[in-house]
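Title: [Solved] Alpha/beta hydrolase family protein 3D structure

Original question kept below for reference.
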Amino acid sequence: MDPQPVLRNTQIAGTPGNLLAYDRWGTTGRPILLLHGLLFDRTMWWPVAAELAGHCSVVAPDLPGHGQSPIRDDCSMARIADDLATLVQSLGSTRAPIVVGHDASAGLALTFADRYATHRVFAVDGPTGAATVEEVPTAFLSYAEPREDPALLKTYEHWLAAPPTQRAAPARLPATHLTDPAAFATNLRAYL
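Solution (posted by the thread starter after getting help):
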């Protein structure tokens, strides 16, 4: 009999002033924290997370004002990094996470790593991992389309400047998270 696949579990963490919606796959092994880029949401990581499921614990939160996480007054990288650390700690893992930041969230990944233990930090450039949206397979196309929200982008405009950090730039992963999620997951599993 084949084992059942690891299912995605959607939850809300935090207090009324700092709620974060997140998806989780698996409960054992090193956690991988997948941070979506601005104007996207956690669903952009579903294809990769499905490939990683069973090998580790995967967590993909919605940043404030994105997906199902409500907007808040303080969207600074430091505040959100603190909230993400609380989230990761609440999951019960004793292992430092691998943190992957997509596009502008690479700065958030670095801020997290400056403040908390991390195993590795990676950045993924570009909005889709493809030269054009047309290269994204039809099954993943809905994950590749950022929403249009000038007000939200204005809230996060300070993220577009280089974050102050004590670290070198994060290692880059090939931007294939939507064009070839299996290969992207294979790259990440090498660091577990």
